[in-house]
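User: Could you check the structure of this?
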Amino acid sequence: MEEKKDFDDLESEVIEKGKCALCGGCVATCRLLDYGYLSVDFSEERPVIREGQRCPPDCGYCYYQCPRVEKPELREGLEEMYEVVSTDEEIRKACQDGGAVTSLLAYALENAIVEGCITIANKGEWKPEVQVVMNKAGLIKGAGSKYTPAAALTGIADAILKYDLWSVALVGTPCEMAAYEKMLVVGRGTHNAHNFSSHIRLRIGLFCLGCYSYEKLMKGYLEQKQGIDLSKVTKLQISDDVLHVYAGEEERLSTGIAEIEDYKRDGCKVCEDFTGLFSDISVGNNGTPEGKSSVIVRTDFGREVFEDALERGYIEAKPIESSGADLIHKLMKKKKEAGIAEKERRKKRLMEQSK
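Assistant: Sure, the predicted structure tokens are below.
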């Protein structure tokens, strides 16, 4: 019988080889299993195990649930595309690109679809921090795009163990949506610690071309090279292949994303998913006018949430223009091809090194 693998194998096969998405799934599962041996070292941007600790011999779930060990199987679903804007002025002022995510979450909270939402807040100098929020004020605090990793899936353990929530919305990048799907598939039929598989009610994926190293992009490039005071930055936005940095109404920087490509995390370069295929609803800013959100409904439950939020007046929506849908499909294809090509480059390089 094949020897069961564990965190040591995850380190050697995924983390050390630059494949880790830093989704936080391994850390969340370790906490849900009541071990708590794993944590995220954000200075190194990697999961780590407590010094001197080894995984229990009958565990290994951190390895087997990792989507970079084996991808989850994609189920056939919907792809209904809309141009969306929030009807809430406070949300529109606080959010980017129409405020669709925040308004959908506000609807879910206020109508008892979920008890809490796992989102990402700025804890200062644009360091992302996972938060579990249970009201509109908390949602607004977490509004706006962050382009460095936060390990959103660690919020699942927080929601269940710290807040004792039974119905939760998860917002994250495509890799985090895939990671939760793999975590669900592996865990539901085995340990299902704290009955976690029944807690995540709604999944909202965010369009993503890749996350960047906090130390390299924010501290090294923006603060040191460009002389930007991170404490005064109020908004970051990537649109039309350009990074925009704002301090209030003033645009402090506008630079092509090719300029910051070297700061992208290695684990993001092998990702093939742009829109979050494992979501109930996917949201981004590509393919719609400024101030509007692009929304893709992917599941029957996602459609139910979307249509009820629309009916109850949380959002306004119309079908996306064909040119917008074409752009989104083009970007989906581009990212998939780039991820496959990067995997092939690494495979070829490894073969050459082994000669």
